[in-house]
Design a protein that fits this description.
By secondary structure, the chain is α/β, with parallel strands linked by helices. It has one domain: NADP-dependent oxidoreductase domain (TIM Barrel), CATH 3.20.20.100. 40% of the residues lie in helices and 13% in strands. The protein contains 15 helices and ten strands. The strands form two sheets. An eight-stranded parallel beta barrel has the order 3-4-5-6-7-8-9-10. Strands 1-2 form a two-stranded antiparallel sheet. The longest helix has 20 residues. It is globular and about 50 Å long. The chain starts with a helix and ends in a 20-residue tail after the last helix. GO terms for molecular function: oxidoreductase activity. Belongs to the shaker potassium channel beta subunit family. This is Voltage-gated potassium channel beta-2 subunit.
Length: 363
C-alpha cells in the first residue's frame, strides 16, 4: 500500500535539522540539506534488511532528510528497500525529500527504458509502487535520450508533475546544450522546466560542473546535486598503495569503474595519488580531518552546489563523511588557494581573443 500522507501526520518521529545547512535546489523554492543519502551502490544490493534502517536512521539523526534513488539501482531493489525502511522507521512523508530517476529501466525491451513518454509515465508509476509512496519530490531524467524529441520529454515530465506523482523534475549527465533546449521548449510552450542537474563533481572531476554549466547556472539559476564527490573512493586515500583486497574496485569488475581502475595503474594514476597524499597532509595536519571530509567540504564550498549525495554501507562511514560540515568553515581563501595549487586542474576559461578582463568583483 502507498505511503499514506494523511496517516503519516500522526507518526511520532519528529525531524530535527540539527546543524545541517539547507540550500535551495536550483531556482526552485525547495530547500534541500547540503548532504543527502544515496542508494546507488549499496541499498538493496550489498546492504539489505536492518542495516539499511540503521544507515537511514543515522542520516536522519544528523539532519539528512533527502534520499536519492533510481529505478535501476539494484534493479529496483534500492527503491523497495529504502521505501520499506522509511515507512518502518515512522518518518513523516512530508518531512522527507525523495528523489528518483528514470531512464535505464529494470527490464529489457524496446520501451522498457529511455525517455519516451511511455517509459517516463510507466517508470514513474512503477517507482512509486516500489517505494510504497504516492509521490516523489524530484524525478530526474537519468540520462539524455537523443532518440526522443525534446518536446516529448518535457511534456512527459510536465504530465507526471500535473498528476501529482512528482513536484519537480531534473536532469542527470545532460550536456549544457540539452538542458538549454529543455528550457527553451518549456518556456515556449508554457511547460515546467527542470530545476537541477545531477552530475559528478569532485576535486578530480571538474570540467562539466565548473565550466560547461557556467552559463546554465548564470542564466537559469540551475542547481546541482553531485555524486561521486569522493571520486569512487580515490579521495578517501584507500587506493594510495594500490587496490586493497575487499575494496570496491577489487570486488566490482563492471564497466562503470574501468576508467578509474585503469588510470590508477598508469602515470595519470600516480599523479592523482600524489595529489591525494598532498591533500591528506593539509586535511590531517591543518584541518584535523580525514581527506574525505576535506574533499566533500571542497565541493560544498562551490556556490552552485545544492546538495552532495553520500553513499554508505554502514553508519560510521556516513558519520565520517559528515565531518565535512566541520571542515567547511575552515576553508579560507588561503587554504583554497593551496588546494588549487595542488590540484592544478582548474578548467581553462574560454579564450578572450585579446579582450581585457572584466571586473571580477561584479562578473
Amino acid at each position: 500500500m502507498p505511503y499514506d500522507f494523511e496517516a503519516s501526520r500522526f507518526v511520532k518521529v519528529d525531524y530535527d535539522t540539527k546543524t545541517m545547512p539547507f540550500r535551495r535546489l536550483g531556482y526552485s523554492g525547495l530547500r534541500v540539506p547540503l548532504f543527502a543519502l544515496g542508494g546507488w551502490l549499496t541499498m538493496g544490493g550489498s546492504v539489505t534488511g536492518d542495516p539499511v534502517k540503521e544507515i537511514i536512521k543515522t542520516a536522519f539523526d544528523h539532519g539528512i532528510n533527502f534520499f536519492d534513488l533510481a529505478e535501476n539501482y539494484s534493479k529496483g531493489k534500492a527503491e523497495e528497500t529504502m521505501g520499506r525502511a522509511i515507512k518502518e522507521l515512522g518518518f513523516r512523508r512530508s518531512d522527507m525529500i525523495i528523489a528518483s530517476k528514470v531512464f535505464f529501466g529494470v527490464r529489457s525491451g524496446p520501451n522498457a527504458g529511455g525517455l519516451s513518454r511511455k517509459h517516463i509515465v510507466e517508470g514513474t508509476q512503477e517507482c512509486l509502487s516500489r517505494l510504497q509512496m504516492n509521490y516523489v519530490d524530484i524525478m530526474f531524467a537519468h540520462r539524455p535520450d537523443p532518440d526522443v524529441p525534446m518536446e516529448e520529454i518535457v511534456r512527459a515530465f510536465n504530465y507526471i508533475i500535473e498528476k501529482g506523482w512528482a513536484f519537480y523534475w531534473g536532469t542527470s549527465e545532460w550536456s549544457a546544450e540539452q538542458i538549454e533546449e529543455a528550457f527553451h521548449i518549456a518556456h515556449t510552450l508554457g511547460l515546467i522546466a527542470p530545476i537541477a542537474e545531477q552530475c559528478q563533481h569532485s576535486m578530480l572531476q571538474r570540467e562539466r560542473p565548473e565550466k560547461e554549466y557556467a552559463n546554465i547556472f548564470k542564466k537559469y539559476g540551475y542547481g546541482i546535486t553531485t555524486y561521486s564527490s569522493l571520486h569512487f573512493g580515490v579521495l578517501t586515500g584507500k587506493y594510495n598503495d594500490g587496490i586493497p583486497e575487499g575494496s570496491r574496485f577489487s570486488r566490482d569488475k563492471s564497466e562503470k569503474f574501468n576508467a578509474v581502475v585503469q588510470a590508477l595503474g598508469d602515470q595519470t594514476g600516480e599523479e592523482m595519488i600524489n595529489k591525494v597524499r598532498a591533500l591528506t597532509k593539509i586535511a590531517n595536519e591543518e584541518l584535523d580531518a580525514p581527506i574525505s571530509a576535506l574533499a566533500l567540504a571542497w565541493v560544498a564550498k562551490n556556490n552552485n552546489t545544492s546538495s552532495i549525495i553520500l553513499g554508505a554501507s554502514k553508519p560510521d562511514q556516513l558519520e565520517e563523511n559528515l565531518k565535512a560540515l566541520e571542515v567547511l568553515p575552515k576553508l579560507t581563501d588561503d587554504v583554497m588557494a593551496r588546494i588549487e595549487e595542488i590540484l592544478d586542474n582548474h578548467p581553462a576559461p574560454e579564450p578572450s581573443n585579446g579582450r581585457p578582463p572584466l571586473d571580477e568583483t561584479i562578473y
